[in-house]
Design goal:
With about 675 residues, this protein is α+β, with helices and mostly antiparallel strands.
């Protein structure tokens, strides 16, 4: 260990201990700190302690470090600190000056308060925490110090069937199996303040006759001024057993296809060989699989692999073993007294596996190559080597056009990918903006839609950009470009006297689930001079059916800064209508498919009516997108819709063109009885 030598009197304290020198560099961490924070000494020793502190807590930490030298013991502060897994833990920290290994240092003793911090029910987080509690897969119960249940989450009802309105107020031990009550009582009674214990026990189901074995943890937070009780979290032990079985399964099986992996194949083949007789082995690969990935993208390539694996798995043959060794390489083995069985199996594979694969209504033509080997007194490694060598010979002698994917098609797609990269560098990828119009004809907002201003092919839409961006791994770069130019356009609108017009931008749900998203987004707003109150973030509804706690926190942080959050394509996730009660959003956009079906498809009409009624009752803004016909506009207005987007008003146009167009957009006012 670099830094100072271990300090015996504090090295084994139950709390994390950190020592920093006069420059704030970490010179010592005890074993509890490395365990609690998942730190590697190699990574943190010599690092500035301030680099580990959450940006929002940095000023507090700097002030505390600056004053601790003037006191015998510093003030207690609460900060968030980054762990070795890039998560944030909440710590209570008190520092004091000490000599460590003969050097004057600030020694900080910490208390991990992460769990308590997350249960801090301040008024601004009640809705978020309620949503998180309700949607957790694990069971959570809060039990008062006297042993009575205060509240439970939805998982208790889903797993054990108990009514969430009946359970509170009843004794917790009443629901524990009589034979387990003494054990649970003894363990909980001996828990110290802020300590926790893990145990197994059987819990009564709602029927009153059956018990379910659960593994759970009890946290003693009776001294916490906010909670003042115990937090019990658990899950059914069978689920953990399933997880362990899954781990055991993956040790011998391929996670993508479910077939045996190399290790599983070798074990199974050796067991087959112990039964005696000869062994035939076949190696299969997909013709031009790399070209399929390049031409259609990795997602399609994965679907092709899955289809091939399913077809191989459906082959019924005595003493047959099937495996995927990785990539597009599959291996089959069959016990036989002669090589005739493996040759018949080869013909069946060629007939049943080498069929076109349908992916998203697109037919992908595939071929397979096969190579076989047989030994009456088999040696497994020798067989594998023989079959692999034969496959290499087959590949070398193969027709380069085999498989239905021409070199011209592959080269064309490669050129398109190169053109997209060049387009990003040249500024050809940019947002166009489509107006959102109120019933009285006023443009109240615009939505940023990505376009490719191609020097030869003209303006290309999202369908020409996103598939290529996904293949090339450029989605993040495209999203960043559209966001930055949209924020700059918001500032341009303000300068042109249109500061009341909101700018809608679409955000990838994977990005909003990152802990730093809200902070970085607000920094970009400041960088490009955009008024946060002018920005609306759109999130696709299907991605919000089960949002994580980090996404919810980011949404709340953005709304507090004045940014609005809207649900895009609303109605496609019909089961989530009730989620509007808990999601921190300001508005919804009715999916264009329902707008197209209004007064044509009864289901679309009914759903549109329900969405408009629900949004009105929750005081949420509601935009109908894809409005192309006057009758759609009139019908939506009669149902109470007050904002519309679509070609009936204007297509998406370039920023400068939109500013010129704004005064000329003159939508005909629509009334409820038009």
């Amino acid at each position: 260990m670099s830094g100072v030598r271990p300090v015996p009197e504090i090295d084994h304290l139950g709390d994390p201990v950190i020592a920093v020198d006069a420059n704030g560099l970490i010179q010592y961490v005890n074993t509890t700190a490395t365990a609690t924070m998942a730190w590697s000494e190699r990574d943190v020793l010599g690092l500035s302690v301030l680099e580990l502190v959450h940006p929002d807590d940095l000023n507090l930490a700097i002030a505390s470090l600056g004053t601790v030298g003037d006191k015998s013991v510093g003030d207690l502060i609460a900060v968030r600190v980054r762990t070795g897994t890039s998560e944030w833990k909440s710590l209570e920290v008190r520092g004091a000056q000490h000599l460590v290994d003969g050097e004057p240092m600030t020694v900080m003793i910490c208390r991990d308060t992460t769990f308590r911090h997350r249960l801090d029910l301040d008024q601004g987080e009640v809705a978020v925490l309620r949503a998180v509690m309700a949607n957790m897969h694990g069971m959570i119960a809060i039990v008062n110090a006297d042993g009575r249940v205060r509240s439970i989450n939805g998982a208790v009802t889903r797993i054990l069937g108990h009514d969430p309105e009946v359970l509170p107020g009843q004794g917790f031990l009443r629901f524990v199996h009589p034979d387990d009550r003494a054990q649970v009582f003894d363990i909980v009674s001996n828990l110290g303040s802020y300590d926790s214990a893990a145990l197994d026990a059987r819990f009564l189901t709602a029927g009153g006759d059956d018990f379910v074995t659960c593994e759970f943890t009890v946290n003693n937070l009776t001294d916490d001024p906010t909670l003042g009780g115990f937090v019990v979290s658990g899950q059914v032990a069978a689920a953990l057993s399933d997880a362990r079985e899954r781990v055991d399964f993956l040790a011998d099986h391929d996670s993508r296809t479910g077939l045996l992996n190399r290790d599983g194949f070798m074990k199974s083949a050796r067991e087959l060989m112990r039964a005696g007789g000869g062994l035939g082995l076949m190696v299969i690969d997909v013709v031009q699989f790399r070209s399929i990935n390049e031409l259609y993208g990795e997602r399609v390539g994965d679907r092709v692999l899955a289809a091939v694996a399913d077809r191989i798995d459906l082959i019924r043959w005595p003493d047959l073993i099937t495996a995927r060794f990785g990539g597009d390489e599959f291996v089959l083995a069959v016990r036989s007294s002669s090589d005739s069985a493996i040759e018949m199996l080869r013909e069946r594979v060629r007939r049943e596996v080498a069929q076109a694969v349908l992916v998203d209504d697109q037919e992908i033509n595939i071929g397979v190559r096969t190579a076989t080997a047989f030994e009456p007194q088999p040696r497994l490694e020798s067989l594998l080597a023989s079959a692999s060598n034969e496959l290499m010979r087959v590949k070398r002698n193969a027709d380069p056009e085999t498989g239905g994917i021409s070199f011209d098609a592959i080269n064309e797609r490669r050129q398109q990918l190169d053109q997209l990269r060049a387009a990003l560098d040249a500024g050809e990828i940019q947002p166009f903006f489509q107006p959102i119009v109120s019933a009285d004809g006023t443009v109240t907002a615009v939505e940023a839609l990505v376009r490719w201003v191609h020097p030869v092919r003209g303006v290309l839409g999202v369908g020409e950009i996103l598939p290529l961006a996904q293949m090339a791994g450029l989605m993040g770069a495209v999203d960043d470009r559209v966001l930055e130019q949209s924020l700059a356009f918001a500032a341009q609108l303000d300068l042109a006297g249109f500061g009341y017009i909101e700018v809608h931008v679409n955000v990838d749900p994977k990005v909003i689930s990152q802990a730093s998203f809200a902070t970085k987004f607000l920094e970009k707003c400041a960088e490009f001079g955009a008024n946060s109150a002018q920005i609306v973030i759109e999130l696709t509804e299907t991605d919000l059916l089960a949002p994580g706690a980090t996404s919810l926190n980011n949404m709340q942080d953005l709304r507090r800064a004045g940014i609005h959050v809207s649900i895009d394509d609303f109605g496609t996730g019909y089961s989530s209508l009730s989620h509007l009660l808990e999601l921190p959003v300001d508005g919804v956009k009715i999916d264009r498919r329902f707008v197209a079906g209004i007064d044509v498809d009864p289901a679309a009409t009914n759903l549109t009516t329900a969405i408009l009624g629900l949004s009105e009752s929750l005081q949420l803004g509601c935009v109908a997108e894809g409005v192309e016909q006057p009758y759609q506009l009139e019908r939506l207005a009669s149902l109470g819709c007050n904002a519309f987007q679509g070609w009936l008003f204007a297509p998406a146009v370039a920023p400068d063109e939109l500013i010129e167009l704004l005064p000329r957009i003159d939508a005909v006012p629509v009334t409820a009885d038009a």
